[in-house]
From TrEMBL:
The keyword Amino-acid biosynthesis applies. Residues 228-288 form the Shikimate dehydrogenase substrate binding N-terminal domain. The keyword Oxidoreductase applies. Keywords: Amino-acid biosynthesis, Aromatic amino acid biosynthesis, Oxidoreductase. CDD domains: DHQase_I (cd00502). This is Type I 3-dehydroquinate dehydratase. It comes from Candidatus Geothrix odensensis. Pathway: Metabolic intermediate biosynthesis; chorismate biosynthesis; chorismate from D-erythrose 4-phosphate and phosphoenolpyruvate: step 4/7. It holds the Pfam family Shikimate_dh_N. GO terms for molecular function: 3-dehydroquinate dehydratase activity; shikimate 3-dehydrogenase (NADP+) activity. GO terms for biological process: aromatic amino acid family biosynthetic process; chorismate biosynthetic process; shikimate metabolic process.
Length: 453
């Protein structure tokens, strides 16, 4: 019987032909999960046969995130038994369910993965490992309410690895993302991914392409964790930027998005996950360094090993300083408040440029902007992060047009309303992508040189 590969990919496509095409092109490192509840009208034996037996068959109840009615347990088991006629390699059966006779009779050619999805707030993994049901692999799934919750999985996963138990244990939700990626590093035998051309099957599930790009299957206990922390961060370009650089430098580090909006929760996660390096974004650029006793705002933290002192830098300031050196000198209109705005103001003032700062709590009028006659405008608000966001303070932008020569956009999406305004006005634009590249390159150097052995 075939072993279980590291990546299991749930076929979540709305059309079977699309799901089948995805399942057939998966490589040897990935096994399609055939969710019978997603294709309830199809003949389960025919579905297995179409995948040439190479699949994990599952039929998930509504109460566990599936579509099979909870009140039709007999029909669900009968559907699984029908699938066994196609002789799939693996079958998913709930952890607490006795093995039905029809499934037991097929144990000569199918392996069992025993799975359990627990309710939010429940963590009974250690107790369950003491009384394993019959099966060849085991999956325990909980929920992450705080970013550091994933750290609770490390000891049970290491125990399972040391005792030859093929276990995956991870947490759902965006804050559980580290547990999905770090399975191999913590001792887990497999993890679940979404198809690259289909939706995720559960909250926090990552596309297979991301798991492969981050080399999740190759991570080992010596790998250190870095990431971008803040909220929102799941859109971040940081993983695509930093992970290839770590790999090129042969550095045992992995960089992930770490969703967190509170400094206290972030402090807890630093130790629970043994984080070595951080890119800090809103709303933590001021709060997290302050909680660590460091002067902010900072956007970069790193340490050699867990327990050693943190070092900090503001590579945003470095990137902006480099950009300003090529721009016409003179007064500047600064839009926004918070960590990025504070960094921008400090850099501008250090360069000897007069600054008029406008934000919601300290508004400025068009008359004050016209009197300043700014040569540049720095956009340091969060507007532009969401689709459809307007340009900030349009009346102030209009007042700046007669004197402005350049603009700086901190949001690194390509076509924000502010960037469009600057281009239409014929201004020299420093886009957010350029600032991101410059500051991220400085971060990567610090992570590679300062994190781990």
């Amino acid at each position: 019987m075939s072993p279980l590969p590291f990546h299991l990919v749930t076929l979540t496509h709305s059309e079977w032909e699309q799901a089948l095409a995805c399942g057939r092109r998966l490589g040897d490192d990935a096994l399609p999960e055939l969710r019978l509840d997603l294709f309830p009208e199809a003949d389960p034996e025919a579905l297995v046969d179409a995948l040439k037996r190479r699949c994990l068959v599952t039929c998930r109840r509504v109460s566990e995130g599936g579509r099979w009615p909870d009140g039709d347990e007999a029909g669900r088991i009968a559907h699984l038994v029908k699938a066994l006629k196609g002789k799939p390699q693996w079958l998913d059966l709930e952890w607490d369910l006795p093995i039905p006779p029809g499934i037991q009779a097929a144990r000569t050619h199918v392996r069992l993965l025993r799975s359990i999805h627990v309710a939010p707030g429940v963590f009974d993994l250690e107790a369950r490992l003491r009384q394993l049901p019959e099966g060849e692999a085991f999956k325990w799934v909980g929920w992450a309410e705080r970013l550091g919750d994933s750290g609770r999985l490390r000891a049970p996963l290491a125990w399972a690895r040391d005792h030859g138990v093929r276990l995956a244990a991870f947490l759902m939700g965006p804050k559980g993302l580290p547990s999905r990626v770090l399975q191999a590093a913590w001792g887990g035998a497999f993890t679940y991914g979404a198809p690259d051309d289909g939706p995720p099957a559960a909250p926090g599930q990552l596309p297979l392409a991301a798991l492969r790009a981050w080399r999740s299957a190759r991570l080992h206990p010596g790998h250190g964790l870095c990431g971008v922390i803040g909220d929102p961060v799941l859109h971040s370009r940081g993983p695509a930027f930093h992970n290839p650089r770590f790999q090129y430098a042969f550095k045992d580090l992995v960089y992930l998005p770490l969703a967190c909006a509170e400094a206290e929760e972030a402090l807890e996660a630093l130790e629970a996950l043994d984080i070595l390096g951080l890119s800090i974004t809103a709303p933590l650029k001021l709060a997290l360094p302050r909680a660590l006793g460091l002067a902010g705002p900072l956007n970069t933290l790193w340490r050699r090993t867990p327990g050693t002192p943190w070092q900090g830098a503001n590579t945003d300031a470095e990137a902006l300083g480099q950009a300003l050196s090529h721009l016409t000198p003179g007064p500047v209109l600064l839009l926004g408040e918070g960590g990025v705005a504070a960094t921008s103001r400090a850099v501008l003032e250090a360069a000897g440029r007069p600054v008029l700062q406008a934000c919601r709590r300290s508004p400025a009028g068009p008359e004050a902007v016209a009197a300043l006659a700014p040569v540049g405008v720095v956009q340091a608000t969060s507007l532009g992060m969401a689709a459809g966001d307007s340009a900030p303070f349009p009346d102030l932008l209009e007042a700046a047009l007669s004197s402005a020569r350049w603009a700086v956009e901190w949001i690194y999406k390509e076509d924000t309303a502010f960037a469009l305004w600057a281009r239409e006005a014929g201004l020299s634009l420093v886009p957010g992508a350029a600032l991101f590249e410059a500051q991220a390159e400085a971060q990567s150097r610090r992570f590679i040189e300062g994190c781990g052995g």
